[in-house]
Amino acid sequence: MPPDAQTVHPGYGVPPEPRRQRINAWLESNGIEPRLVRADRPIYVLAVANGTIQGGLPWLIDVIVFHQYYEHPDGHRERNFITREAVSFQRTVPLQTPFPADPTTDDEGAHDDEEQEVEAVEEDQRSPEHEDRAEGDE
User: 56-60, 76-80, 84-88: lowest mean pLDDT where?
Assistant: First the structure.
């Protein structure tokens, strides 16, 4: 990946659920169908030259770089005859909506918050029978 790129997904498989949802919403806001994007390949934003401006300086635009599965019009993915893997190709799309920053949580922080919420719900949902047994044990 180029050094000046912003990594959205490093490409090591499906990201944790909160991040996956953010990525999918962002892809959709940029006109990209998330189900066609390969999770095992990186997704990044890159500034590329798109002509020159006054004085000969390069005019840069941001593009999203990702790998997309090739699907037939009937919705079936094309398969490589030798490897039997789904065919994909690298695609670039002009960036319309920047990837949202989430300063309140990161993937691990969101997971920790979810665990705390689950524990609180479990304590609140004890059955009356459980409370009776706890009193009888004292």
Answer: 56-60
Q: How many Cα atoms are found within 13 Å in the side-chain-facing hemisphere of 73? A: 0
Question: For residues 19 and 114, what is the distance between their CA atoms, to the nearest angstrom?
Answer: 13
136's torsion region: left (phi>0), alpha (psi -120 to 50) or beta? alpha
14 within 8 A of 77, measured Cβ to Cβ:
no
Compare 115 and 8 and report the one with higher pLDDT. Answer: 8
* pLDDT value for 49: 87
pTM: 0.69
Tokens linked to 103 = 């300063």
Please check whether residue 35 is in contact with residue 113, taking contact to mean a CB–CB distance below 8 angstroms: no
CA angle 122, 126, 131 (to 5 degrees): 140
